[in-house]
Specification:
Radius of gyration: 25 Å
Number of strands: 7
Largest sheet: 7 strands, mixed
Distance between the termini: 66 Å
CATH topology of the largest domain: Endonuclease Iii, domain 2
Helix content: 40-55%
Structural class: alpha+beta
Number of helices: 17
CATH superfamily of the largest domain: Helix-hairpin-Helix base-excision DNA repair enzymes (C-terminal)
Length: 384
Amino acid sequence: MSRRQQIERSTLNDQRAARPLVSRLLQWFASNARDLPWRRTLDPYAIWISEIMLQQTQVKTVIPYWERWMRELPDARSLAKAPQEKVLKLWEGLGYYTRVRNLQKAATQIVSHHGGQFPKRFDEVLALAGIGRYTAGAICSIAFNQAAPILDGNVIRVLTRVFGISGDPRKNETNACLWALAEQMVGTTVHSSRFTFHVSRLRFALSGSCSAINQSLMELGALVCTPKQPRCTQCPLRSRCVALRENRVDKLPNIVPQAKATARQFVAFVVEHCGRWLVRQRPAEVVNAHLWEFPNIETDGTNPDAVTLLAQHVGGRMRSLTPLPAIKHSITRYRISLESFHVVLEVKPRKMGAETRWLTPTEVEALAFTSAHRKVWERLKAKE
């Protein structure tokens, strides 16, 4: 074991390591925390919805989605009994649709196992569909002021830099040490009355100091200790930051790059006949299950003839075919290029699959589409 690793392990095992940081963090948070809509409530359901939406998504994107969701589905009972189409439509555009399916599964669990009331015990929250250790800790600390640690990307960045931790946070040993540090941070506030002053200055709802320290760690990572161009001169922990002292800020966290993304190419046809549009629903067992899309086919990237593809995969007799702007997007490890065409048919195909529909524009608008195909539709409307 290297000298640096020995120092890091000693720091992580020192129960006093977090204490000098907490007061500074809370004081900074009291003056700098953003007044976000989900911070104006202690309702665990509302906090849960915000935490799931915020996964892989920026705050500015989430705000209108969260506000609309809370108007339409204000509690677990309303979510549990809502039609799947409505739930998917409310989520349309946020992506990673497994999140929303798990939300509805968990709401059903809350109704059946907890009488519709969001559980308070950490282990019961953790048992809900789609909720991991971080999300359970966030809900329990923010809503109920429990000393439950959190460790998301923002917190990992703050802790690895402040304590100079060079191990890959995704590796088991380093990850376990970071969780231990996060636990020290939130545990420090439990029996400390001297933090009450900082907490009382906050402008929004707060359950207590455990909530404040966890939110302050996330907020510091989001606003100051950012991935690129961190604002170290504005950081309340700069005098104790090992990475700053050793000029390693840009090297931490030390996350090993993942495998290179795989390129995939698709061709889609936005087919029109007598004022109706051809759409199809994705099957249950695939990515973006149950969402709607236009007929499309994956190609090998060799620029195949669109007319031939249309005849093979849609059929009918074509009147016109007009190219639309290409769309590039990402799904997990895939980088996807979507070429699309507006097709007007004189004669509809004789046979169509059970999952396909001919719909009016109003009916198309009401469906939950995959993000890329919604963009295709919006661009077509803008062009007309």
